[in-house]
Design a protein that fits this description.
- The protein has one domain: Alpha-Beta Plaits (2-Layer Sandwich), CATH 3.30.70.
- The strands form 2 sheets. Strands 1-4 form a two-stranded antiparallel sheet. It has a two-stranded antiparallel sheet with strand order 2-3.
- By secondary structure, it is an alpha+beta fold.
- The chain is globular.
- Bound molecules: iron/sulfur cluster.
- Iron/sulfur cluster binds next to helix 1.
Length: 83
């Protein structure tokens, strides 16, 4: 298992559904065509065997809503010392 997860920015997502077509093992669609990931906005860690397809789905997303979300790079870094 890799440390890479997928993340969807639902503000940017337009429900084009390309991601689910390219990566049905990880992404399904709701009734309006918006992606459903295992943990809401993020997927579970991807197996190494799906990393190439995941990158293809990221590259195909027309709104840049689909992104990599590495576990070792927190979105909210800890506050600076003394704050
Ligand atoms: S391809 Fe991009 S815009 Fe389309 S449903 Fe997936 S994340 Fe949203």
């Amino acid at each position: 298992m890799s440390d890479v997860r997928l993340r969807v920015d639902f503000v940017a997502c337009d429900g084009h559904a390309l991601c689910a077509q390219l990566l049905p093992e990880v992404i399904t669609l709701d009734e309006w065509g918006y992606p459903i990931l295992a943990n809401g906005q993020t997927s579970d860690p991807l197996p190494h065997s799906l990393l190439r397809l995941a990158q293809a789905a990221i590259d195909a997303c027309p709104t840049l809503a689909l992104q990599r979300d590495r576990q070792d790079s927190p979105r909210h870094p800890p506050p600076a010392a003394g704050v």
